[in-house]
Amino acid sequence: MEILKCEGVRKIYGSGSNQVTALDGIDLTVSKGEFTAIVGASGSGKSTLLHILGSVDKPTEGKVVIDGTDLLKLNQTQAAIFRRRKVGLVYQFYNLIPTLTVRKNILMPLILDKKKPNQEYFEKIVSTLGISDKLEALPNQLSGGQQQRTAIARALIYRPALLLADEPAGNLDQKNSREIMDMLKLSNRNLNQTIILITHDEKAALEAERVITIEDGRILSDVRRR
After folding, report:
1. Which residue blocks in 20-61 are alpha helix, DSSP H?
2. What angle do CA 53, 43, 224 make, to 5 degrees?
3. DSSP state of 71
4. Cα–Cα nearest to 102, from 159, 160, 141
5. What is the DSSP letter of 222?
6. In whole angstroms, what is the distance from residue 96 CA to residue 30 CA?
7. Virtual CA dihedral for 143, 54, 83, 171, nearest 10 degrees?
8. DSSP 206
9. Are the C-beta atoms of residues 101 and 136 closer than 8 Å to each other?
10. What string of H, E and C letters represents the secondary structure of 77-142?
11. pLDDT tens for residues 45-88?
């Protein structure tokens, strides 16, 4: 089942002699349950693509459809609601609310919509991510790896159509980096979560079942590893 489709996506910044083409005709399809890595050097266009897929930015040309929704038809408010409900975002920096417990940080997307969590699913997420015993702690009482696990749990709580992870282990030491990649793989396998990992680290990219390389705003290669 197709969860993401990009057709002819272009993104141009500036005009005239200052014009920069960040994305130049991206065609991409991702199926439900896939774990895909998008790899490229700084300036390759991968972060621009992430922002477009996360409905943070809009392409200059082309079409982006996620879980049946055409992102270009959304206004700013609709895009924010879509992002909260359908796209889980995990960044290098955890963006946790320091005055809230781990539990409330995880549940924040549901709290904003005044929705009650599915307790069984909540427990499955925190158990999978190994933070069941940290739910009443504050972020500053956690290690970096535990904070990132909390951020991943928050991204998963709404059962998003797509989880976008932007260099999620980039701010961690080797041990915690390894654990976060393992957590993403577990989320993909145990929760059937569709994941797109954005990274410049080729070793991290090889954890995915599919590796897409971007260069100068174009897809250079698209390799399925299994």
Report:
1. 46-53
2. 60
3. G
4. 141
5. E
6. 29
7. 10
8. T
9. yes
10. HHHHHHHHHHEEEECCCCCCCCCCCHHHHHHHHHHHCCCCCCHHHHHHHHHHCCCHHHCCCCHHHC
11. 988 999 999 888 899 999 999 999 999 999 989 998 898 889 98
Predicted TM-score (pTM) of the model is: 0.85
Structure-token match 């890595």, residue found? 37
Which one, of 150, 169, 63, 53, lies nearest residue 100 by Cα? 150
Separation between Cα atoms, residue 145 and residue 160, nearest integer Å: 22
Placement of tokens 């955890």 in the chain: 94
For residues 148 and 169, the answer to whether their CB atoms sit within 8 Å is yes
Amino acid in position 110: L
β-bridge partners, 214: 219
Q: Looking at residue 171, what is its pLDDT?
A: 67
Residues in the chain: 226
Residue with tokens 């083409």: 21
CATH superfamily of 33-58+81-224: P-loop containing nucleotide triphosphate hydrolases (3.40.50.300)
